[in-house]
Amino acid sequence: MYILTPTLSGRITDMFGAKWLTATSIFTPAILSAVTPIAADYSVGLLIAIRVMIGVFHGCTYASLFSLYANWFPSTERPSAIAGLAFGANLGNMITFPLAGYLCEYGFADGWPSVFYVISLAHIPWLILWIIFVEDSPQKSNSSGIYKISNKELEYIKSRNQSFGVPKVSLILKSF
User: Which CATH number does the domain 4-174 belong to among 1.10.340.30, 3.40.50.720, 1.20.1250.20, 1.10.10.10?
Assistant: First the structure.
């Protein structure tokens, strides 16, 4: 299943934009995680279905983020940006795992369910900041974003980008 979701999400990103696909692929699993303890009490089948849905949504995250990176980062800076993404994911794990252990032992709602509730709630500020500060492209941010980048920033990105944005399928096919 994980092989299919990045491919499909790449096409969905092309149609609807990476900002909202990324937000959906991160925030929907947060909501589903919040109902995980309830599902676990209700039925094993429902719990498995929720965990599969979480995996499907998470499978879209990296494809949509890479689309954002292709638009926002000059080609010479993309490797550092992708390394930053990997570092951030590992840093999040370093914070979350000990927190989860602590919440299992001392948390509310009989311990282990509090892990799911706290982690889910932590996504709300992230979503608010994402909506305010992120746009699909520098051009969109510069012209209609809630938080606009300057013309100078836009020119910096354009001037250092040999391949601005995501390559179009027609351009790739012509090279064969």
Answer: 1.20.1250.20
